[in-house]
Amino acid sequence: MATVGNQLPTQAVSKPTSGKHGNVLPLWGNEKTMNLNPMILTNVLSSPYFKVQLYELKTYHEVVDEIYFKVTHIEPWEKGSRKTAGQTGMCGGVRGVGTGGIVSTAFCLLYKLFTLKLTRKQLMGLITHTDSPYIRALGFMYIRYTQPPTDLFEWYDGFLDDEEVCHLG
């Protein structure tokens, strides 16, 4: 795989847009890594779940259905799969892919959404979805990783008082 390493995000990647509120979303940062942590991205790309099962999903609706049926938390790692014993603070399990553990279904699906190059309408469909808080959560995570920082509040405003429970881990 090409360098995933410590690539710093740049300004918004130039994409054709139809105005600030058109259907084509701008993409901020690295258009290959989605600005994900290199260890998380490496684990997603090498995950049998991502490479086999998610490869078969070709449409936005298929991926949304997969989120509904498979996501039970939105942490990056599956519970109990990281070996961080004896490590503390910022060094707790951040060095090397081996310490990453098993990447979560949620992060595999988040990157799958990225490969689909969502439209504004599709992203709005995620963050306003009523069937699952995890569908909405992945929509907001997609915004966080792909949209220009100056636009984040505009996306999040109106959702900040959402009281539905979503188990983080």
Automatic annotation (TrEMBL):
Keyword Hydrolase belongs to the record:
no
**Entry-linked Pfam families:** PRP38
Q: Name one GO biological process term.
A: mRNA splicing, via spliceosome
Q: Which GO terms describe its cellular component?
A: spliceosomal complex
Ranges annotated as spanning the membrane: none
Q: Which UniProt keywords are given for this protein, alphabetically ordered?
A: mRNA processing, mRNA splicing, Nucleus, Spliceosome
This protein's species is Neolamprologus brichardi
Nucleus recorded as keyword: yes
Signal sequence extent:
none
Family that this chain belongs to = Belongs to the PRP38 family.
Q: Where in the cell is it found?
A: Nucleus
Task of the protein: May be required for pre-mRNA splicing.
Q: What is the protein's name according to its record? A: Pre-mRNA-splicing factor 38B
Chief subcellular site?
nucleus
